[in-house]
Structure formats: structure tokens, C-alpha cells
Design goal:
Strands 2-1-6-5-4-3 form a 6-stranded mixed beta sheet. The longest helix is centred in the middle third of the chain and has 13 residues. The protein is globular. It has one domain: Roll (Nuclear Transport Factor 2, Chain: A). A hairpin with a 2-residue loop joins strand 3 and strand 4. It contains 4 helices and 6 strands. The chain has 118 residues and is of the alpha+beta class.
């Protein structure tokens, strides 16, 4: 499924990235809407593919957030280069450093990598 804006324009990598970051405050359905059934998230524990698995991943992530996490959340670096978005963030003391890399195709996140260090 291609994400198309009102003017029949596919969302850019910048737009998908911005939406993804804002979606955490808007809930699970909005968050998962950036993905397709063919999307994958690559984790240290192995890949997650498809909307159901991605939804479960983010549901668990959001459920396990401890009080003070969002107040501590700070973006250290964010870059977009062509169809790749890169994010370095922290939420000390909960997460000392994390990185996300998103490969965007047709206005959706096609592949994402995620690594967090305690």
C-alpha cells in the first residue's frame, strides 16, 4: 500500500520520519499506520515482519514505558539521506543510547533497525 497525500503525492522520507516520531504520542494505530504487511523491524533478537508483529512490538514497547521516560527522551541526532532516516536518542536513566534507521519506500517504512542500550 502506497501512502499518498491529498495531491496524489507520495509522502517523502522526511514526512514519514516526522510522522513516525509524532505517532508515539498518538497511539498504537497511528504508529503502526507507517508500516505495511511487507514491512520489517530488525532487532538484536531477530526480525519482526508484518503489521501484526510490528503492532505487538510497539504495544509491548509502549506498555513497558516507565514513568518519566518521555520527559527524559532526547533526540541526539537525526538525519535523512534519500530514502533512509537515522535517529540517535536517549532517555536516561532508562535508555542510555538507542538508534533507529528507517528505509522508506512508497511513503511507508519498509525496513527499520532498532538497537537500544540499557
Amino acid at each position: 500500500m502506497i501512502e499518498v497525500l491529498e495531491s496524489n503525492r507520495v509522502r517523502t522520507t522526511h514526512e514519514v520520519f516526522a510522522h513516525h516520531l509524532q505517532a508515539f504520542a498518538q497511539g498504537l494505530d497511528v504508529l503502526v499506520s507507517d508500516y505495511t504487511e511487507e514491512s520489517s523491524i530488525l532487532l538484536q533478537s531477530g526480525p519482526i515482519t508484518g503489521l501484526f508483529g510490528i503492532g505487538q512490538f510497539f504495544e509491548a514497547f509502549l506498555k513497558n514505558i516507565q514513568p518519566g521516560f518521555w520527559e527524559a527522551f532526547t533526540i541526539q541526532r537525526q538525519e535523512v539521506c534519500a530514502d533512509v532516516a537515522y535517529l540517535v536518542w536517549e532517555a536516561k536513566p532508562f535508555v542510555t543510547m538507542a538508534t533507529d534507521t528507517l528505509l522508506v519506500r512508497d511513503g511507508k517504512i519498509h525496513v527499520q533497525t532498532f538497537t537500544a542500550l540499557g
